[in-house]
Amino acid sequence: MKNSHSGREPIARIVKRGEPSFRLKVVVRACAVLLALLLDAGFIYFVTGLNPVDVYVTMFNGTFGTLMRFQWALRDFASLLLIGVALAPAFKMRFWNTGAEGQVLMGGLASAFVMIRFGGIVPSGLLFTMMLLMSVAAGALWGVIPAFFKAHFSTNETLFTLMMNYVAIQIVASCVTVWRGQASGLGKLNTKTKAGWFPQIWGQRSTINVILVVVFVFAMFLYLRYSKHGYEISVVGESQNTARYAGIHVGKVIIRTMILSGALCGLTGFLIVAGRDQTISVNTAGGDGFTAIIVAWLAKFNTFYMALISFLLIFLNKGAGEIASAYNLNSYAADIIEGIILFCILGSEFFIRYRLVFGGTKGKEALR
Amino acid sequence: MRKLIAVLCVLAMCLGLCSFAAAADLKVGVILVGDQTEGYTLAHIEGIQQAQAALGLSDSQLIWKYSIPEDQVCYDSAVDLVGQGCNLIISNSYGHQTYMALAAEEYPDVTFVSMTGDFAAVSGLDNFKNAFTRIYEARYVSGVVAGMKVAELIESGELSPEKQPNSFDGNGNVKIGYVGAFPYAEVVSGYTAFFLGIRSVYENAVMEVMYTNSWFDIDKEAAAAEALVANGCVIIGQHADSTGAPAAVQKLLDAGTVCYSVGYNIDMLPTAPTAALTSPTNTWGVYYTELFTAMVNGTEIPTDWAKGFEDDAVSVTAFGPSCAAGTSEKVSEVIEGIINGSVKVFDVSAFTVNGEELSTRVFNSTIIDFATGNVLYEGTEYEAINDGAFVESVFRSAPYFDLRIDGIVEDAQ
After folding, report:
1. Structure confidence by residue, pLDDT tens digits, B153-174
2. A187 vs B64: CB contact, 8 Å cut-off?
3. Which among A93, B184, B200, B349 counts the fewest CB atoms within 10 Å?
4. Which of A179, A182, A283 is nearest residue B71 as measured by Cβ atoms?
5. What pLDDT is attached to residue A367?
6. A271 lies within 8 A of chain B by CB
7. Above 50 in pLDDT, residue A363?
């Protein structure tokens, strides 16, 4: 050992930590946020010439400036988080569902279809029920197709679900083209009758979305941790052979879990259409289907951590938009500020799992 | 331009003297589909800044929202601007309109202006307005510039059936090309005006229109221009926002093909120094200045605003070195004619539809929700043919000439 390193010793080496303590996690993350704020302050001061403190206040106001902005942030947070929650069971099973974007779109499309075809014709209770059922079914269908092929033919689910996104995007684009006629976009559906629009509660149509997502965060946490299904999912995720040996029908678990994951994505599509957009477009999911992958992954499939991370992402996004508007900067400058913060926070995960040991082999722990 | 500056100066003086207090109360929110990097939005930003300078508004009286997509974000932005105390909110893209109308319904004390929109007159909302320039006038004039060029090419023998046989159809007509964004009335009205401008100078022309299905796509616009030149077109006009087409035409011209470009929005000479002839362009500052002034004075804002050469709301950019001799004299003459009414862009004697001259054409301003087939806003029927011409942008500011006239072929999309 000594011989191989005697020539030149590395300045530092990377060592995996044991189970990090709670205190360590808090300290590392706090340092990351501090570092991000300092780096951003440098960028803001030297590149844009603005006062960094003012800019941070503006950023904060992007989410907390007015009650309405806070409600909008919650609304967008609800969509992102619900998709994250939908991904949790699939990811825990090590089924890499990268198709949330498409599953949400198909759900949204089903809702929009019901709104167009039956809005103002059937009573509103029935209309919402139809929208809900159709969306959940459409999302589940989009999720179960790759699961079926995975369970029966061992196809690669990452690529399969990913490609299903593009199929969904094209289907939505085609439908929008048919429905929009001569207009440049579809615009809001049923603007006159408001059929299929959630009622306003506390001034917002999206209040129902926020309430539902809270319910699902708890429900999914309990489902994964305490139910028999949840246990089966973790066993399949750890080792399919162990699962088989224990008498778990692996194919059945995969299909069942993906129906659940897809159905929740479809539900998100319904909530977005009824509670936020009241229309459908290829941007209905707005990339949340992909962002949610990061959310679910960072949170290690714990739905409460997901809530924290989702909120952080939405906060940064709203803050960046407000900075761009308030200081008449273009969106790129705001994106850099957002990017630096994200980079530091994501980067800090590395220091929670590993540590750097300086001084090469002299640090004895490095060889352990 | 001189007239515009004079008007602005007078306005500025009036305002400086008598309504300083009112001007300080104006707070304007601006919702833009792009940012400074994109010609269409840049033209609006410049127009608004022109109006700001004319009225002496401070920077804090304007709140800008950049890169706002045509979806729920537009509604959120509008409502957020209301929350920030704006009493006038402007959006610059057609697709913003449904979201603006929704916000206008909820906040009747705030004035909403949806540029290029078509709901205002029929929406029944007093605080919701539309505006559009008579850009078709400038497109007609840019057609005149192109027509002069074609005439010169034929006369000098630079372009002949022997040299470039592909550029003539079976009847000896010269082929013109046009890169269009979408098959809407706005584009149809524009390319028809352009074509009629060409034919007012050089009769024997036909035109092929190719759509990109996008307002801004450099690659698609370049590809469409290349395809049109390959089909033999010698002039490439455009109703799309990028420099893709002029750049492609310049490359082909340099390679030896006889072809020239008429741009849009901005001067294309930096992109295509010898291929670009001119570009029709909007001067939005004329409208924004009128709008801000009316807001400050508390006077009526027109529900549908549409102005053209007469008020310097449209123009054509500097003529390129390739333009035919005498272009600028001819153009001044045509512009004079448009202003005094002796030149009518959509003169029915200048074109036919299905081989027949138009004697009647009903324009119905009803807005129909295409998805459900329901009437969104009930409108009125108007006879659009008056005094030997189709009257454009009178019954509504947004263009409604959507006839496909003989001599123009649209490619399948």
Report:
1. 999 999 999 999 999 999 999 9
2. no
3. B349
4. A283
5. 46
6. no
7. no
Confidence of residue B138 (pLDDT cuts 50, 70, 90): very high
Q: Give me the pLDDT at residue B193, please.
A: 97
ipTM entry: 0.77
Lowest mean pLDDT among A94-108, A305-319, A346-360, B64-78: A346-360
Confidence category of residue B19, pLDDT binned at 50, 70, 90: very low
- Say yes or no to pLDDT of A48 above 60: yes
Task: Please tell me the total count of domains within chain A.
Answer: 2
B329 and B201 together in one domain: yes
Query: Smallest CA–CA separation between B106 and chain A, in Å?
Result: 12
Say what the pLDDT of residue B12 is. Answer: 52
A340 within a domain of the structure (yes/no): yes
**Contact B374/A at CB under 8 A:** yes
Does a structural domain hold residue A321?
A: no
Helices (H), A154-249: 157-180, 207-226, 228-238, 240-245
CATH code (residue B300) = 3.40.50.2300
Q: Say whether both A295 and A273 belong to one domain.
A: yes
In angstroms and rounded to an integer, the radius of gyration of the C-alpha atoms of chain A is: 24
Whether the CB of B35 is below 8 Å from some CB of chain A: the reply is: yes
- Same domain, residue pair A212 and A256: yes
CA-based R_g, chain B, Å: 22
Interface contact B72-A277, CB threshold 8 A: yes
How many angstroms separate the CA atoms of A19 and A23, rounded?
12
Strands, DSSP E only, in chain A? 12-16, 354-358
Q: Answer whether residue B7 shows pLDDT above 70.
A: no
Tell me which residue of B168, B239, B207 sits closest to B409, measured CA to CA.
Answer: B207
Task: Say if residue A50 is exposed, middle or buried (CB neighbours under 10 Å; 0-12, 13-18, 19+).
Answer: middle
Q: Is A88 helix (H, G, I), strand (E, B) or coil?
A: helix
Kindly state whether residue A62 falls inside one of the protein's structural domains: no
B349 domain-assigned: no
Q: How far apart are CA A107 and CA A264, in angstroms?
A: 9
pLDDT in tens, B299-321: 999 999 999 999 999 999 999 99
Helix/strand/coil (H/E/C) assignment for every residue in chain B: CHHHHHHHHHHHHHHHHHCHHHHHHCCEEEECCCCCCCHHHHHHHHHHHHHHHHHCCCHHHEEEECCCCCCHHHHHHHHHHHHCCCCEEEECCHHHHHHHHHHHHHCCCCEEEEECCCCHHHHCCCCEEEEEECHHHHHHHHHHHHHHHHHHHHHHCCCCCCCCHHHECCCCCEEEEEEECCCCHHHHHHHHHHHHHHHHHCCCEEEEEEECCCCCCHHHHHHHHHHHHHCCCCEEEEECCCCHHHHHHHHHHHCCCCCEEECCCCCCCCCCCCCEEECEEECCHHHHHHHHHHHHHCCCCCCEEEECHHHCCEEECCCCCCCCCCHHHHHHHHHHHHHHCCCCCCEHHHCCECCECCCCCEEECCEEECCCCEEEECCCEEECEECCEECCCCCCCCCCCCCCCCCEEECCC
Contact B66 A119 (CB under 8 A): no
Instruction: Name every chain B residue with its beta carbon within 8 A of the beta carbon of A181.
Output: 368, 370-371
Full domain range(s) for residue A134: 69-315
Contacts of B184 in chain A (CB under 8 A): 182, 184
How confident is the model over A121-147, as pLDDT tens digits? Answer: 999 999 999 999 999 999 999 999 999
Any idea how long chain B is? 413
Taking the C-alpha atoms of residue A142 and residue A164, their distance in angstroms, rounded to an integer, is 7
Range of the domain at B126: 2-134+282-314
Share of chain B above pLDDT 90, in %: 81
Q: Which residues of A touch B413 (CB under 8 A)?
A: none
Q: How many domains are contained in chain B?
A: 2
Which DSSP symbol is given to A204? B
The CA distance from B349 to B388, in Å, is 7
